[in-house]
UniProtKB/TrEMBL annotation, chains A, B:
Taxonomic classification: Eukaryota, Viridiplantae, Streptophyta, Embryophyta, Tracheophyta
A GO term for molecular function: DNA binding
Coverage span on the entire protein: 148 to 387 of 387
Annotated gene: BotdiFLO
Organism: Sceptridium dissectum (Cut-leaved grape-fern)
Function: Probable transcription factor.
Cellular localisation: Nucleus
Ranges for domain Floricaula/leafy DNA-binding C-terminal: 69-232
Biased composition (Basic residues): 54-65
Name the record gives this protein: Floricaula/leafy-like transcription factor
Gene Ontology biological-process entries: regulation of DNA-templated transcription
Length: 240, 240
DNA sequence: AACCCGGGCGACCATCGGACGCTGGTGCC
DNA sequence: GGCACCAGCGTCCGATGGTCGCCCGGGTT
């Protein structure tokens, strides 16, 4: 470099590495269904790499149950969710669904903070709730937020965002029937598949068009269900 | 399940795991510059995990040079690029820049195919040129396309897309000066930084707004340059 | 032929998105 | 108190985005 005042090239050349991220549920109104279960046991999906499947699942040792001589400051796990109707707060050592959905709103806020920070630093700016966001939430003290939980109930939150009426309906129904959270969670899929159908099976688009949902990945299982139903729709064969 | 015709729940419950795939460059017109290089040697960026840096770079053994007794069908590497002006085809064992840019268009087509396939299969649909796309290109016989190469020149292609005039200008200039590809590649950064400045330093947005660029990740170095220049712009301190 | 320059791209790494299933909290008897 | 159920989330895994630098092609002497 010389006195030409154009040091930019050197600047570029020297930038180094940076780091910084069962029952029998009811479908409510819809009866447009010919859901044949059997086919689903053996997943029909083809794949580019059909070999080498399932060779994982070894080394599953998963150290749980604290070894002697370790820090014993593990947080107790969160209380389980129960099916509550809108506005109802859970009794006993349980959490209600309003609280569950609030967790999603909290994540949205944490994402906003991460975006702000990464913009200030000139780093890649996430558009979705990523590992980085979960890490940030934990750092900010929201230790009750974690990835497996949030991913587990995304589609329930999706229904809540896309059709509050129907979501509330379903909650009341499952609560009154005394169903557990797992059953309610399963039931949340159907209305979403129906919405996908009405939108040309573009579930990704359904998520992206909603302000609050845009930041959440479409759950694999939901995408697969849509694919299966779509195939049935366009399928001229009938096994009746 | 019973005879209610609503087998959907079971269907959902049984979906199993699926798998699927130099010199002193000139800034042309722009002279808005006070690029101080020194600061760039020690990267100032803070980071959430500042420790453990650089402890990598071990285990660098990188088996090259074929061991005896292996398939010897390795393709010869592509001819190096040279700086050519638009329309000029490279002489000798060299490739020209028109060819380089055509590679990007080919990748766009391969991405289109991957998107088509993943939509048919109900899998996640990539919006960018991902590893999967490079794999697909290779499978389709385009073995001359590879990730490190394409990522290396993305910003050059970006300039070509965003300001053909200026890109052509720069090519001619560097060709006439007898500069090598590396020097030309470095020079491509400046006009892009200038464009970012004119767009509120939103380089991501600059890429996303262009039909052809949208599918390419913004190179880290370009993002960093924009960040550094932005800091200088808003910096009231001057070290002269 | 011998040399050296420079850049192509194989291979590596941290981290990601995604999922499983162990562990233990919880309500019921 | 004891037990069975079920769901929270620690932990793992294949694959991704991103990069370095080895190796060798190619032009020059």
């Amino acid at each position: 470099g010389a006195d030409n005042g154009l040091m930019f090239p050197d600047a570029i050349a020297t930038i180094g590495p940076l780091n910084l991220n069962s029952k029998e549920p009811v479908l409510l109104e819809q009866s447009h269904t010919h859901f044949g279960a059997p086919a689903l046991l053996a997943i029909p999906e083809p794949s580019s790499d059909n070999e080498k499947r399932k060779l994982g699942r070894k080394k599953q040792k998963r150290r749980h149950s604290r070894e002697p001589g370790e820090d014993g400051d593990d947080r107790p796990r969160e209380h389980p969710f129960i099916v509550t109707e809108p506005g109802e707060l859970a009794r006993g050592k349980k959490n209600g669904l309003d609280y569950l959905f609030d967790l999603y709103e909290q994540c949205a806020r944490f994402l906003g903070e991460v975006q702000q920070i990464s913009k200030e630093r000139g780093e890649k700016c996430p558009t979705k709730v990523t590992n980085q966001v979960f890490r940030h939430a934990k750092l900010k003290g929201a230790s009750y937020i974690n990835k497996p939980k949030m991913r587990h109930y995304v589609h329930c939150y999706a229904l809540h965002c896309l059709d509050l009426e129907q979501s509330n309906h379903l909650r009341k129904l499952y609560k009154d029937r005394g169903e557990n959270v797992g059953a309610w969670r399963q039931a949340c899929y159907y209305p979403l598949v129906e919405m996908a159908r009405q939108n040309g099976w573009d579930i990704e688009g359904v998520f992206n068009r909603n302000e609050k949902l845009r930041i959440w990945y479409v759950p694999t299982k939901l995408r697969q269900l849509c694919h299966i139903e779509k195939s049935k729709d366009s399928d001229s064969c009938s096994y009746e």
